[in-house]
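Internal ticket #5521
Category: modeling
Description: The requester needs a full-assembly model to guide mutagenesis choices. All entity lines are attached below as received. Residue total reported by intake: 280.
Assigned to: D.W.
Attached entities:
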Amino acid sequence: MIFVMGPLFSGKRSYARTLCGEDEMIVDVQELAAPGADLTALADRLAARYRVVVATETGGGVVPIDPGERAARERAGRLSCLLAARAETVVRLFCGIPQALKGELP
Amino acid sequence: MLTLVIGGSASGKSAFAESLLAEMAGPRVYLATMRASDGESRGRIARHRAQRAHLGFTTVECPLRLEDAPVPEGAAVLLEDLGNLVANEMYAPDGAGEETEQAVLRGVDALLARCRDLVIVSVEVFSGGDKYAGDTLRYLRVLARLHIALAKKADRVAEVACGQAVYWKGGKPT
């Protein structure tokens, strides 16, 4: 599995489309880290099912005042770490430019 | 040559961009996008003017319409900054509004046709989550699309953090 991440609107989806078809990728997985979800099982499932998994980095900026948003951000970050651990390649996008954080650029 | 310099608030991106210009030949032009609207922006403008005083820039006010900026042939140009220019174009009554992205790209092409070197400074504002709406979301979308388009066009792309540059494309001039 290739894990593609990066800031908002950094060109992650366009990059993922160069790697595989729409049916083999999933985007915005930070939204799947619902309260009470088993993140380890979720990461296992995503890694087994998809060739490319895409997440938006949401951990920057000020910690949100709202407890729900705070917890969602925390879970999103944990999920990204679990996905990166399972990926053979981790790619971070910056202004549409890919950089390999783990493994080699495909 | 086009160089894109991106960094967060007070990351040292201006000083880094100015250091690039210091190495470049030709008349130096500073394209200033900020409109002095209050004490805070006037203070910021004064600080930046003092910081670059020794580099012999001609300052040209350019809050809108990059395309019409009077830049001499063969100049080395520093545009500071894109985040500000985009906000002006999107929200000033006399700005490009919905056409901001195209207007800015046209302006950059016009500059590149005339000047020898162009350094564009912009802001990193995309790492604070994805819970935005309305005007803020629209602004982020347009700025991000311009970052991607300009990074593609650029010879060099540098991210600046605490005054240190990380090159994502191209590299240090030798």
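Resolution: model delivered.
Comment from assignee: The interface with chain B takes residues 7-11, 30, 56-62, 64, 69, 73, 94-97, 99 of chain A (CB under 8 Å).
Ticket closed.
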